[in-house]
Amino acid sequence: MSDDGGRLALALQRLAGSLVLERGGERRRLQRAAGEVALRPGDLLSSARGAFVSLDGGAFDLCLDRGTRLQVRAARSGPFLGLEQGRVLAEVATLPSGRRFGVVTREAEFHVLGTVFAVEAGAGGSRVVVAEGTVEARAGGQTVRVPAGRACASDPRGRLARPRPASAEELAWAEALAPRRRLLFEATFDDRKLRGFVGALSEAEAAAPGDLCLRLQPLAGNRFWGQWAHAPQGRLPSLRAAPGVALQFSLWTERPAEVLLQARNETQGKDFKRSFAHPGGFWKTFTVALMDLSTYYDPGKHPVREGDLFTDLEVYACEPGDAQVVLLDDVRVYRKLYR
């Protein structure tokens, strides 16, 4: 396997369980310690009793079930992992343009669209279970989008089945390994409470009958954006930046659209942002660490600092004059608590 020059930083201080790294015919047992290990294409990770692995500062968090063998196939543009056997649960932050994350088995490929999902490989084929967001499954010339709460299997010949409802028990094996989440803020809108946001609720394109979401409103007089949703200052609880604190939201658009998340950093007196692209036609979940937001000008000189206070939140979408339906749901801020 050729080395594409990419490296993945495995954080030893977050490592849990049993993990062996195989490289060039040599085996090395990894243990929790200070520092990092740089993974490269060709490296093989195996776990006899299960393990938790955090890559690239928490951008890619992996739970390996007992008996799992996972090989790094590529790293330059982000992890592309080969699951030889066993099960892996991946929690992946929304990636910037040009970055990717995928898991490939003998029969199928599973590409992340910003999500939490698990892949299993065995003699009977492969299976993906999606907990958050959407996964694109590919096999035998087929492509299937698998949304949250669904599972999709491929047989040994690489034929994909229609996605079916998934149960929580299918991911129970990873509970003892995955980081816990401490919820700091949540707006699901199903109780008809806006939780600080301004706008009108809608049932259009809801994930299930009776579910509610927030429809983005037309934005007049803006040269760059046509619609927005916002929670003004004073309506949100105080949110402070810290390692592991992430903001997550789901968005539905009729057609492809550019999206901007903007938050006011009251400590620095500046707006911080993150841009996304939405393919359109389905619910897409975006997850970004507060520490990864950047300013409009000189972002390298003005990074988010630990303890910075964020006081309001805005989501923009579409070009001016674009009247397509855009819906917002499941806005959460949480902190990952590594074990």
Structural class: mainly beta
List unreliable stretches of 5+ residues: none
Radius of gyration: 20 Å
Q: Let me know the largest β-sheet.
A: 16 strands, mixed
| CATH fold call of the largest domain | Jelly Rolls
CA-CA gap between termini:
34 Å
Binned strand content: over 45%
> Which percent range fits the helix content?
under 10%
CATH hierarchy: architecture of the largest domain = Sandwich
Your description of this structure?
It is a single chain. The chain is mainly β. It folds into two domains: 8-178, Jelly Rolls, CATH 2.60.120; 181-337, Galactose-binding domain-like (Jelly Rolls, Sandwich), CATH 2.60.120. Helix content is 0%, strand content 52%. The chain contains no helices and 31 strands. The strands form four sheets. It has a 16-stranded mixed beta sheet that branches. Strands 22, 23, 24, 26, 27, 29 and 30 form a seven-stranded antiparallel beta sheet that branches. Strands 19, 20, 21, 25, 28 and 31 form a six-stranded antiparallel beta sheet that branches. Strand 15 and strand 16 (142-147) form a beta hairpin. The protein is globular, with a radius of gyration of 20 Å. It starts with 7 loop residues before the first strand and ends with a strand. The model has no long low-confidence stretch (mean pLDDT 93).
